[in-house]
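User: Modeling request: complex.
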Amino acid sequence: MATASLPRQRRSRNPIVAEDRIAGWVFLIPSLIVFTGFIFGPVIYAFWLSLRDYQLINPSKAHFIGLDNYRTLLSNRDFHVALRNTIWYTIGVVPAQTAIGLVLAVLANRKIRGRSFFRTAFYFPSISSSVVISIIFLWIYSSNGLLNFLLRSIGLPTPRPVWLSNPNGMIGMALGWVGIDSVTPWLAGPSIAMLSIMMLNIWTTTGTMMVIFLAGLQDVPGDVYEAASLDGASRVRMFRDITVPLLKPVIFFVVTLGLIGSFQVFDQIWVMSEGGPAKTTTTVAYLIYVEAFEQGKGLGYASALSVVLFAIIIGLFLIQRRFAGSNT
Amino acid sequence: MQRTQTPSARIRRLSLVFAVLLALGAIAPVYSAVSAQEQTEVRLTGWTASPEEDSLLVQVIADFEAKFPEIKVKYEPVPAEYPTKLQTDLAAGTVADVFYVDSLLAPDLMTNDVLLPLDDLMASGGVKTEDFYPGLIQAFQNDGTTYGLPKDFSTLAMVYDQDALTAAGVAAAPTTWDELRDAAQKLKDEFGSPRIVIPADIARYLAFHYAAGASVLNEDGTEIVLNSEEAATALDFYYGLYRDELATTPADSGAEWPGDALAKDLGDIVFEGNWVFPFLKTNAPDLKFGIAEMPAGPVATATLAFTVCYCIFNDTEVPEQAWELVNFLTGPEGMGKWTSLGLAMPARPGLSAAWLAQYPEREPFLLGGEYAKPWQLGPGGQRFMEDANGEMQNLFAGGQDVATTLANMQTRAEESIKLGQ
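Assistant: Request completed. Predicted assembly structure:
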């Protein structure tokens, strides 16, 4: 930034600065090539594709169709379903991973024996391969898996169809028990299959959030707690009135990460449920893949979906920033 | 590194090295370009279901290369996600010269000008459409043009655990829906859990649909008539087995697919194709299983035929050589050897006697070939299948009744399937 404000003639007059500048660019080139070729370029290209009818089967027939893809999308049932699933997923996962991550961080920050063991143990799921973890959870959720075994051994019923094959909405089922039938699809809630995947993702992402909170906790000055304890504040009170307010910027960061991650969830779904049963685990990110590559409406439509997903994430970020206040 | 150098000189030197390396990287691909070969290369791709299948195809290809020494076949099997791979290869223009197309996907490709019409090549090679089962070759014809020749076919039949049926007091394999339900009850009484394994999948349900006299399209293929009284009878029977806990799904039983349930003794009756043989041989070598035709429904005995063809890419640079390969693989010699493993049945009626002599106990599959309906639903069929399976999954979960399921399937079919005019 400082060099940019230098007077123009100084650049050419000073050979050492000029040489350093060239060297700087040369070193930047590899990452610039990667960034342009694999991130910035495809992003621009996706915008362009979203205005075209582009089928993978026959790209030579591709042609410009203006905003037709966006019009289709607005009235498309699959998109509505995917958006609904993604929203339920986000409502379930983001608060849980933030709250549990924060509590774990506070606990792991205390001077207890085996502290580093707990930190590693909680962080471990986050750094493991999501595909490997998904396959392990496939076994846990299977008909003769660990979860059903535990439920049976304490005499509880198990769902039929089994967890990842069950499209019944959680809220709809709960309302059914109290005698209210046939709620609208929007209120049926996440399916049992979706809940299973949400549980898995809360478990894997909480560790990452914990590590970020731990880093934030190092910046909270210890004398504030000392003063509070001299005044006779309880641990709960200190957590509520000191830790949480001072961690506000970190909470903002964690919630942002969580929102972005939730709106982009793909790999666990691809491995565990392929969007089923009855499309109840088809998220927007998964729908993009289906529409592009699996006999869907083509790459152009899928690009329009990804542009909309991008707009949703940016919109959420801006709303959240407003609510979080300007100090963050 | 030289200690006497100043840091900036070192950076300059390093950046020079870097720039040279980058430049070299740009040139490198030129060196890897191969020189022209005397043989013409034909690329062949398909999916592979088992190592046995793979090695057999390699043998058949070796026979072809011995007969046509001027043609070299480059076989590139795809282990998973074949339709996705095929589509991206088509988009990139890097698709193989000859590739597998299954009957469900064929209409989408035939209507998109990506397959080479074979009629002229067939006429010059003396290949007649009558050499193949009509139901199979029709799956790869559109508007009177043939785009692919079927390599083999499979049908659904009832595969059952002989000892389990005997233990439950079922003397003979059920031949009607009533007998099937009766057998299901006896099996459940004997073993305490449902022993028929059926998935919430229209690729199995449709066999029951047709057996009740229901259809998907009307006679001339201009209208979708999926929702009907006959269909309600069929779906009520199929789903009824699960609802009344006389049947289970693969997932509920703890299996990957029905054949897996049979192998792991999680079920005793499944409706699957000839592809179960290598699987059962490997995973349940001691299982004594029987094979029978699909139980007859109220109107007919029905089954589905699954077939795959060899197609040639429209823009291939070696159409003659690609045709020689397709003609050999689907000809009496190549197909005879290919089907001799017993995985799938010959698509040429002329070869069926020899196949049956080798695998007499598999006759029910071959018999099904005479009345089977092809697993094909028109352009957009693949997408409809996903929607329809979703409806079936909702039905199985008790989220909606049979009538709603069929009405929804009808709507989905009208949205997805592009009908002929």
